[in-house]
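Appendix B. Raw example, untouched.
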Amino acid sequence: MTERSEPADLIPLEPERWLDNGRLHPTKTLPPAFTQFHTLDLSNRKLMIAMNVMGLLLLFIFGWLFMGVAAFLNPQFFWLELRIFAATLTLPAFLLTVALVVVLHELSHALFFWLFSRERPKVGFNLLYAYAAAPDWYFPRRQFVLIGLAPVLLLTLAGLVALPLVDFLTAARLILGLTVNAAGAVGDFIVVMWALSQPADILLRDEGTAVTAYKSS
């Protein structure tokens, strides 16, 4: 007697494809019984206005914070930091610093997308915006949070390590870069805080202008 095979669409997904010792891990196939739970729409007009306002406020907060750290690491900055910092605010230096920060910021996201999925993420740059994404993947909350915070964690750590080792002019531009990177991560902060407010046992998918959470029903 031969066993009757089940239709392909009725065969349950093998647990090891999305579970590891009972913990969710990245998958390109939404597990059985997982359905859309909640969505954060980043294109919402009120949210976009709030993000822009918060970003401007964070520029001053992080600028003051990183200059204070520089002064602590090198006391001479106490007398020179404002003058040297202002000297870096020429338009070419500012634009070059911002462009470099944007590239490194998105590459940091891309690195963690790759570390967790082992698949090359999509990275793009143009005059209006830059992005790194893995739109075909569903990530557990803990990994999604690390992806979101990667640029702030990696670039801030690297910058603080380099700060006491460079000359004054480079240090001032480094402070500017750290400030732009941290303040420019306001969208990442909002997404991370939203993700942390969701249940722990969810999968998240970054769809570009929206992030969707999926939960087992």
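End of appendix B.
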